[in-house]
Design brief:
Elements lengths: L1 E5 L10 E7 L7 H9 L3 H7 L10 E5 L8 E8 L6 H11 L3 H4 L3 E5 L6 H14 L20 E5 L6 H25 L8 H14 L3 E5 L1 H6 L3 H7 L7 E8 L8 E5 L1 E5 L19 H16 L4 E11 L11 E3 L5 E3 L7 H12 L6 E6 L14 E5 L2 H14 L3 E3 L4 H6 L7 E2 L7 H9 L8 E5 L5 E2 L9 E2 L4 H9 L10
Parallel strand pairs: 1-6, 2-4, 2-5, 5-6, 9-11, 9-14, 10-11, 13-17, 14-18, 15-16
Antiparallel strand pairs: 3-4, 7-8, 8-11, 12-13, 15-18, 19-20
Helix pairs in contact: 3-5, 5-6, 6-10, 9-11, 10-15, 12-15
């Protein structure tokens, strides 16, 4: 895709399709709208009178061959009231129209951002277009396997030459970030027979090397040598052997301590002996979305050349029922040496994370952040709308919450109280892997904190935000890639954390 930037009059652009972002109006006073109104003999006024289009968030209209415009098609897309139209309004607007035939059949597009002057709106527009137009086609056949999109050139347009440089920087940043999020979607949507732990580790290693990220893959023997008994307990019921991927991005100074990202990588989760309901079990191919977010975050950081040292940890396993599977009632020993009573084999993700979080301590990190499709209980806390975050450092949690506002990926902090810590104690081992239904999301975090060293730590539970059930403007039905924008924004703005742990 060729990206270009212009401050020229959009009416004169020779693109096959011109997109105009429009804020809400009572009558067409914007110069371009007035010209369109004249060029359509009052068509814009009539659209307002019939309430078909007046710039409201969610509205769009296709205008064909307006007089005075070089483009044969003009698409108007609403971003809502000017005083409240933030970056996500532009992300939604471009995502909403990305699959319109007027856009997909155009070899060249011109996108004018209207009154927008903020870089985050420019970035969001690029993200929305790319995210909204995505569809996983690699497992289709025939015509459906072909991308109908003909576009090879997009020109982003603004008022005033002074905005060109900020526009270019923001759009190219947004394009790169969106491509990172699409990587997460693609991996999370890949069937488990095509993404076993070993195949996944191979793909992660290839991506890392392509972007000059140091990579080490621990096989089963190396995992045993590291005494990762919790990870091995999850994997022992499957014919597919586990892997543990270590990624290292050296973007900061030699002496800079790394930020460690840890992602759950269960490539398929049947629940093990504690078998899941079969109704939606096919979605469990995406139980590795946290690890995909970590992989994509390091790849994106490398592409953006972020000045920070990062470590990414991806514990990979398949959770299957078999004659060799871990049983409820078994006791396993984690890498840290803590013993864990297995109450529910479907509470497997925290076992992978336990060993990974303990391994993270070997890097003497600035901070540790884990991301995982961990608990079904999140559905009853924030539904499909956002992800709970928990941790031991108020400053780190506040930064993640600020990143939520900056990216449109919504999160909300929850406490970890002593009640839930008690809930995760076992009468016959150090810990239990399940404390039952009460406060399940918090109890899982209370379990994880046993394996975190003496540094800031945050846990992002992306269960139920990792899959979109219906489809939204820039989030088609299926894997969402949630967390990538959030992590990258956090890393882009990273500063040394001050203050003590909770």
């Amino acid at each position: 895709m060729i990206l270009k930037y212009s401050a020229e009059d959009p009416a004169g652009t020779a693109a096959d399709c011109l997109v105009l972002c429009v804020t809400q109006y009572d009558k067409p006073v914007d110069p371009y709208l007035k010209r369109l109104d004249a060029g359509t003999r009052g068509g814009i006024t009539r659209l307002r009178q019939t309430e078909e289009f007046f710039g409201k968030d969610g509205q769009y209209a296709v205008i064909l061959s307006p007089e005075g415009f070089a483009a044969p098609q003009v698409v108007l897309v609403g971003v809502g009231e000017r005083r409240v139209a933030g970056h996500d309004a532009y992300r939604r607007a471009l995502g909403r129209i990305a699959n319109l035939p007027a856009l997909t059949r155009a070899e060249s597009l011109a996108i004018h951002l209207g009154t927008a002057t903020r870089a985050d709106c420019f970035q969001a527009a690029a993200e929305g277009y790319l995210l909204g137009g995505w569809k996983q086609r690699e497992f289709k056949s025939g015509e459906e396997a072909k991308d109908p999109r003909r576009t090879t050139r997009i020109t982003f347009m603004v008022k005033g030459r002074a905005q060109l440089r900020p526009l270019q920087q923001a759009v190219e940043r947004g394009w790169t970030i969106a491509e990172g999020q699409l990587l997460v979607r693609r991996l999370a949507g890949t069937p488990s027979n095509r993404l076993t732990p070993s195949l996944y580790a191979q793909e992660a290693a290839a991506l890392a090397r392509r972007h000059k990220i140091e990579v080490t893959v621990l096989d089963e023997a190396a995992i045993k040598k590291e005494k990762m008994g919790a990870l091995l307990a999850v994997a022992q019921g499957s014919a597919q052997k586990p892997r543990f991927v270590v990624l290292r991005y050296h973007g900061g100074g030699r002496g800079q301590k790394p930020v460690v990202l840890v992602g759950k990588g269960v490539t398929f989760d049947t629940g093990g002996i504690s078998l899941k309901d079969p109704l939606n079990m096919h979605e469990m191919k995406g139980d590795m979305a946290g690890s995909a977010a970590v992989l994509a975050a390091l790849v994106t950081a490398a592409r953006l050349r972020l000045r920070i040292n990062l470590v990414g940890l991806m514990p990979l396993a398949e959770n299957m029922p078999s004659g060799t599977a871990t049983r409820p009632g078994d006791i396993v020993t984690s890498r840290k040496g803590k013993t864990i009573e297995i109450i529910n084999t479907d509470a497997e993700g925290r076992l992978l994370l336990a060993d990974a979080l303990d391994y993270a301590n070997t890097f003497n990190p600035q901070a540790v952040i884990d991301i995982a499709t961990l608990t079904g209980a999140t559905l009853y806390i924030l539904g499909y709308a956002g992800a709970p975050i928990l941790g031991n450092h108020e400053g780190l949690l506040a930064r993640i919450k600020a990143g939520s506002a900056a990216t449109g990926e919504r999160v909300w902090p929850l406490p970890i109280w002593d009640d839930m810590r008690e809930q995760m104690k076992s009468p016959i081992a150090d810990l239990t892997n399940s404390g039952g239904k009460p406060a399940g999301t918090i109890a899982a975090a209370a379990f994880l904190e046993n394996f975190v060293g003496d540094w800031p730590w945050a846990h992002i539970d992306i269960a139920y935000v990792d899959v979109e059930p219906a489809g939204r403007p820039y989030v088609p039905k299926g894997p969402t890639g949630f967390g990538l924008r959030l992590l990258v924004d956090l890393l882009m703005r990273w500063k040394k954390l001050e203050g003590k742990k909770r």
